[in-house]
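TODO from last week: model Oxacillin resistance protein FmtC.
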Amino acid sequence: MRLLRHPAITAAAPWTSALLTLGLGVLLLASGARPSMPTRFVKLMSFEPAILIEISHFVSSVLGLVLVMLAFGLRARLDAAWAATIVTLLVAAPLSLVKGFVWEETLLLLALAALLAPFHHAFPRKARLSRMEVTPGWLVSAACLVIGAGLIGLWSFENADYGDLPWWQVMVDEDAARSLRAWAGSAIALLAFGVWRLLGSAAKPPIVGEEDPEFERVRKILAAAELSRPTSNLALLGDKRFLFSASGESFLMFGVRGRSWIALGSVVGRRDERLELMWRFRELADAHAARPGFYNLEPDDLPDVVELGFAIQKMGEAAVAPIENYTMEGTRRGKIRRAWRKAGEEGATFEIVQPSDVGPLIPELKRVSDAWLETHAGGEKGFSLGGFEPRYVQEFPVALVRWQDQIVAFATLWPVASRSVFSIDLMRYVTEGPPRIMDYLFVELIQWGRAQGYSAFDFGQAPLSGLDDRPLAPALSRVGRLIYERGEELYNFQGVRHYKDKYDPIWQPRYIAAPYKWAIPLVMADASLLASGGVAGLAKRPKKLD
């Protein structure tokens, strides 16, 4: 038994079991499509009812398709696939005797069941078969196997003439009809399975042994984190799940959509706990048959992501402006300088309100937020962007711009414990104030941040910015570049980049990562749906102003 638990044998068991199960599944499909052995069949007919032969022949072929399906679950190391495969093998074994006394098939099926039985430990993923990730490519492969079995049947009966027979006679008479029924049953079963898996939505996997924490625990880590970014404050939004380190001084936050578990950024807390916590996240997702991914990674995170064996793709760039020596002088910043001075001359004032004092301002802030939302597509966001939730807004300092005793613009601030960089989350305004009021707000924020000892101001991302369109560039980069250049109706990609670029920031790349290159588009799509609140959020359009 110790030899069976050797790491090398344990690692090889899922793939070996999957290949053997796939082979036997194909064997049953082919056996059902071919003619029965005459001598054995005649002897079987002498004591076995014909209806029992017909039923066992049909069910045996369908079980062949089931084994083909289960092979995918065995490769994914699903505990449920291991159990279901053994049961299917034990059921199919006697059917091979009943359908035509094919004792060779029975021995092979029983032998594989005996071979699989001691390797339960090699299938540690505790997930239902309904959560098995089945790709369209795999379904196409399975369809090819079923079609191949049908062609074997046609080849085997090539001397039979079906052209003059009505369909009901073909389906109830002779050995050929039995093969056609078995093949048709397998094809219908595969079609039903494929439609269900491609169109059905999977349930969200539970988190075993981890509970959503009280925010006090998260606040404590954020306040003392050695490793944090402005976006780490999204942990307080209330839509994340958390994985904490053994010391309790670090956490990794993630969202769940379908089979995707998407970590937002990297670990928050201690740098020396980052890699271990990222491994735990991948192992936990793997144990639940989920698709892990990392969204909005920075260059500093990449060595650890590579250590996990993940594929990486650039998703855009973030504008980070050093502010220690930032000045408004010079011709390049002339328009910003004039907008800032003009707003001040017209009576605009700037102030920072601390979290404890934000509560009484919530009604007025909501008025500004609602007016802003009416003119912008998509509605409130989540996951990678904050939304106007009073409890969440009161977690942070708020920058206000007043004009004629009214709040005309505000921004919630994202600080970090190290004071290396700060950013803003919600940024909302009304049109009643001075023109270009956001330029005024940004200039004041830069001056405030410098006075507070911050070294940089993060203006946020420009999605799909900075992707290459070279002939040898990755396909995802080339597609992203095409969307960036031609997709202005979907999102103001170039406008966002142009607006932030006038502050002369340093453009830093941001990345997305997944276990396989083909999974990156799926993770990106699920992250977008998490941020937008689903398809309905993506489709929501702004109201037209009269």
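Done. The longest strand covers residues 311-322.
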